[in-house]
Design a protein that fits this description.
Belongs to the N(4)/N(6)-methyltransferase family. N(4) subfamily. The chain is α/β, with parallel strands linked by helices and about 425 residues long. The two termini are about 15 Å apart. About 45% of the residues are buried. A seven-stranded mixed beta sheet has the order 5-2-1-6-7-9-8, sandwiched between helices. The protein has a two-stranded antiparallel sheet with strand order 3-4. About 45% of the residues lie in helices and about 15% in strands. The protein has a domain of about 120 residues. Helix 6 packs antiparallel against helix 10 and helix 9 crosses helix 10.
């Protein structure tokens, strides 16, 4: 590829068969054969393990290499690498997601003892619940906690039962099982106990006046225990998840220690990713008040106006990126022409520059972590969330990477989806890079 040339972009095959494949929802879903560990807890829009396998194979990654996911989320890449016997490391700045990823690669607990201990906790919880049926005795969150979660995201009685279960988990805590038991509760809360719906935004659905909290939790424990019977027999391999900012990788990773990157960073989509995990983050104590929430948001790449702060300066990394500046100017011009004057709307253009600036800062720091010849895959998607101005995220990210010395190998089409606001076809792509060293 010549200097300044555009990377090859996978064209859209418009045949009926190709459309059927790309639009099938299961292309981005978890296959039944992949449930072990992956399904202990995951984001609703997590990319699938089969995508990780595809790029590990394409890159020729073996047990002699080391893979990084710098936007680890709930651990899809590191879990899949561990299953395949490939050393891996993740970096995640959301404490709930970090916790989930860390637990999902911990396969040491004895499954039978885990189930036995959980049953003891369940029995103690049930015994207390049978004595506290009148509404006056229902436990609830404190004022600071209540302000952090979506209103009516969990009904009073299921919340009471969940808090009682959490207390008994703490009272009977066994270090060998405590994290797995809490993760099982987090999954149960968001999937069956709460009133939350995900599709794709998190929202409050129909209220559930009651829920079999203890039974749902024990079912999640049983699923983990069942997985551990097989996973616990796997040969040991490095798999860890650091709690850190992806723009400050040298704080947790050694120089020239990574052979491949497979990841999906946030998109510039005005989505507050902390809302997706808010309820379980509060219940498990990862976020206690607004100060904790602010600290969390400051450690994230800026992808929405709700985590933009006056002191932010990542936009300085893209002052020489003409497409980023053009899009920001178009967003601002559209805002003015439409008479949009709210505080959040005034931040749309800046949020866009901060997002791409944060990604540029990440890619700049990453260069020191990579070994020469390292191969990278970034799953990103087109967006039109800012006043319907189209943002071709993959192409812009490729341009930024090239300006930082990366080779842009390709932009592969992963799938297409229909934007709900505009009914336009949007690309979700994998930006494939190589670091020459």
């Amino acid at each position: 590829m010549t200097e300044g040339s555009k990377p090859p972009v996978t064209p859209l095959d418009t045949s009926a068969a190709a459309k059927q494949v790309r639009y099938r929802s299961e292309i981005n879903q978890l296959f039944a054969a992949d449930h072990a560990a992956h399904n202990w807890y995951r984001f609703v829009l997590s990319y699938p393990p089969h995508l990780v396998r595809d790029y590990l194979q394409r890159f020729g990654i073996t047990s002699e290499h080391r893979v990084l996911d710098p936007f680890c989320g709930t651990g899809t890449t590191v879990v899949e690498c561990k299953k395949l016997g490939i050393p891996s490391v993740g970096v995640e700045a959301n404490p709930m997601a970090h916790f989930a990823g860390r637990v999902k690669v911990d396969w040491h607990p004895n499954p039978d003892r885990l189930l036995e201990h959980a049953t003891q906790v369940a029995n103690a919880t049930i015994a207390e619940l049978e004595q506290t049926t009148a509404p006056v005795y229902l436990r609830s969150l404190n004022g600071d906690q209540e302000k952090l979660i979506l209103k009516n995201s969990i009904s009073p009685l299921p919340l009471h039962k969940t808090l009682v279960l959490l207390e008994h988990l703490q009272q009977q805590a066994d270090a060998s099982f405590y994290d797995h038991e809490r993760l099982a509760l987090a999954k149960s809360v968001v999937s069956a106990i709460s009133n939350l719906n995900f599709g794709p935004e998190v929202c409050v659905g129909r209220a559930k006046p009651d829920a079999p909290v203890v039974d749902l939790w024990l079912n999640a424990i049983a699923a983990i225990a069942n997985d551990l019977h097989a996973l616990g027999q796997s040969p040991p391999v490095e798999a860890m998840v650091h709690y850190a900012d992806s723009r400050q990788l040298l704080s947790v990773l050694d120089p020239q220690s990574i052979d491949a990157v497979i990841t999906s960073p946030p998109y510039p989509n005005e989505k507050d990713y902390t809302r997706t995990t808010r309820l379980e983050s509060v219940l498990l104590g990862f976020i206690k008040d607004k100060a904790d929430l602010r600290s969390l948001k400051q450690g994230l790449v800026r992808s929405n106006t709700r985590n933009v702060y006056t002191v932010d300066d990542d936009d300085r990394w893209v002052v020489d990126q003409p497409e980023v500046q053009r899009i920001a100017n178009e967003i601002e011009a559209r805002r003015i022409s439409l008479g949009k004057t709210s505080g959040f709307e005034r931040l749309y253009a800046r949020a866009t520059k901060l997002y791409f600036g944060g990604m540029a800062r990440h890619l700049a720091e990453l260069r020191q972590i990579l070994r020469p010849g390292a191969q990278l895959a970034y799953v990103v998607g087109d967006q039109a969330s800012y006043l319907r101005v189209m943002i071709r995220t993959g192409q812009i990210l490729a341009d930024i990477a090239r300006s930082l010395g990366y080779e842009v190998v390709a932009i592969d089409l992963f799938r297409t989806r229909i934007a709900t606001a505009t009914n336009e076809q949007m690309r979700e792509e994998v930006v494939v890079l190589r670091w020459p060293g």
